[in-house]
Amino acid sequence: MRPLSKDIREKIVSTYFEGSTSIRKVAERFRVSQNTVQKLVKQKRETGNINPQKARGGKPSQLAGREKEIISMVEEHSDYTLSEYCELWEERGGVRVSESTMCRFLGKLKL
Fold first, then answer.
1. 64, 100 Cβ separation under 8 angstroms
2. Euclidean distance between CA atoms 57 and 49, whole angstroms
3. What string of DSSP letters covers 68-82?
4. DSSP line for 75-107
5. pLDDT tens, 11-50?
C-alpha cells in the first residue's frame, strides 16, 4: 500500500492539532484508520515531521550469500529452465526454493 501524500498528512495533523476534534472524528473525516491518525500525530510530536518512513526490510532470500554458487550453476547449465535450476539447487545444497524465488534472485544478479 502506498503512503499517504504529504498534503493529506499535513491536513490530518493540522486538523487534529487545531484541537476542535478527536482522533476518531479526524479519521472519519479523512477516511483513514484511527491508528493512522495516532501514528501521524505521534510522529509529528517526536520527530517534528510527517514524511513517510522508509520501508523496513523483510525476510532475506534463502539464496542470499550464495551468489558465486548460483553464478557457477548458471554458467554450467545456461540452457536450464527455472524448474531445473530449482531441482539442481536442491540436489546440490539440500534446500528447496520456489521458481519465483530463483527467478527474483537471478534477476538481481542480472542472469
1. no
2. 22
3. HHHHHHHHHTTT--H
4. HHTTT--HHHHHHHHHHHHS----HHHHHHHHH
5. 999 999 988 889 999 999 999 999 999 999 999 999 999 9
Q: Could you give the CA distance from residue 11 to residue 27 in angstroms, rounded to a whole number? A: 11
Whether residue 99 lies inside any domain: the answer is yes
56 within some domain = no
In a shared domain, residues 11 and 39: yes
pTM above 0.90, yes or no: no
Q: How many domains does the chain contain in total?
A: 2
For the segment 49-66, what is each residue's pLDDT rounded down to a tens digit? Answer: 999 888 777 888 888 899
List the domain range (segments joined by +) for residue 42. 6-47
